[in-house]
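Running low. Got one?
___
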Amino acid sequence: METLEQALRKLPLFAEVPSEVFPILLTGAIEMTYQAKEIIIGEGESPSGLYILLDGTAKLYKSSPDGKEQTLFVLNSGEPFCLCSTFRKKPFPVTAAAPTTCRVVSITKQAFFTAAEKDNAFLFSILLKVSERLRDAMELAGTLSLQEVPQRIATFITKLESENDSSENQQNVRLPMSHKELAKVIGATPEALSRTLKRMSDKGMIAIEGRNVHILDRERLEQCAEMGL
């Protein structure tokens, strides 16, 4: 059976951590498994430290008193969360939940900062993640406030395509979530999402097969991201 150290070593965030520093992290590490729809950390709670997703998916979202949700981030294997709460003694500002069964490891703040003091490269990689998350949050705020639904969808697909490492499949992307969850990410109703995807398909921009999106006309898709349908 794979050990926790072996599982963490596979993740880019920990790949370069020196062997003498790793035991420090492990002394404060606890592995946990969450079932689909289970809450990992609730909004307003105080996390014990840094959390890292080992496998599966997790989502960070805000909810209103009437039950409306706005998904902020969908996390995949290897991604950390509770970054701000690790550096500051503040409650967790969102809710972290498991859309699917997932494994998570938490590392106490004491173990994290002790390891960071001994390995500046590890601390730098964490700060890089903080800056990336901040950039994504700013982009999301701009998208939700300034763009209509077709622009939001086109922007999401083109960004996903640009992050695709496979040159062989650069015309195809796979949505990392269900259409229902995607609607929450872009701030639309599921019905509005379905109607817009159909319109984009009818106009020959994309073809949809479940979660698979085939980009048929990248130029028109990019125009849609800028100006809408």
User: Anything to note?
Assistant: The first helix runs from residue 4 to 9. The chain has nine helices and eleven strands. The first strand starts at residue 29 and ends at 34.
